[in-house]
Input
Amino acid sequence: MVSLLNRFGIFYGWWVVFASASIVFLSAGTFFYGFSLLVSPLTHEFGWSRASISIGFSLRTELGGIAAPVVGFAVDRIGVRRITLAGVFIVAVGLVMMSRMESLAFFYLSVLVIAIGMSGTGGPNASTVISHWFRRQRGRALGFMTLGGGAGGLSAIIFAWLISDFGWRDALVIIAVVQFVVCVPLAISIRNRPADLGLEPDGQPMDMTPATAGGSTRVSHEGPETTTAQALRSAMFWRMALVFGMSNFATTAVIVHQVPFLEEQVAFSHTAAAASVTIMIAISIVGRLGFGGAADRYSAPFVMAIGLGFTAAGLVMFSAINQPWQAVFPLFFFGIGFGAAIPLRSVLQAEYFGLRAFGAIQGMILTVTTFFAFVGPVMAGFMYDASDSYRLAFLVLACGPAIGIPLVLTLRAPWAVASEKPAPV
Output
């Protein structure tokens, strides 16, 4: 593979981006974005409440957050490739388990198994390896990688078709088999760092300037090589974690409840509601690529603040729509903001804390943010059960990204603070 890419003048880091994105698409994205398609079938077959089903999704999120530091430490020490291979196998097992469930307890158990596997195959691990392979083009590369998650959202309509034609149980088995067969060879092809192949980040000598390297106009700064303990003692760490936690509070709730909301309160058919997930994730691609690339050129906190504004605006619009045609407006704004936050978390982390303990620090951030991701869907489910409506829930959810806007603007990287100190006289 290396010699083939060299023959066409393609930097191997871009293959790492492609392989990582494909794994995220098949092993993580499909189930994450397709979960809402299971809400109605599970409700009809078992009579479970929306809150009970939402707890399952939140358990997946929370266990992923608890496992994230452990996985992060392992990634820093044994590399992404081995962790990814293990994750692919565990996800497949969990999907097959879910296809055989007959009780709420077994549903929760299968979700937890899938969550453990997704900790090894999801975007955070891909972000870690790509942050090592790229420096000046990091935001752009991370934006392209997150297209894997976006494509997972686009596959929601395929998942809906599988459920319609084969039933939700067989649909889960089909997904398990496909992701295992495809993802194992892709994981084997990943290399943890460019030095493993005698290469440099971005495929260019490290001392090249952005102009000569054809990169962005903003120099890509990296923070000091911070340890996990040093990061945890930093106010910047907790501020950053809170920003993305407030964002996840809102976005995960929409991922879970978007389909039933549109079916029941906006007169969408089940197929159209599933297609809305596809449309929203397709729109998020603009946010992933556009905002990821913008972070290579402009202040990453400012770029993130704009993305949070799009998310909050989309949620307010969701609370107000009554006709199917009106859904285009919240889907557009929410999709842009949702996509923007995905690559920016890794961009900000690398700028503030460096790469020395990237996986472990990322894991600790995810532990904090997943608490909020746990609360959001469950709160929305309880509010629906109490009022038979999601509209008030969307307004409450909009407060999360709105609070994050002033908070993210207070972030200042260590290198920036140091550069503003007066020189000694």
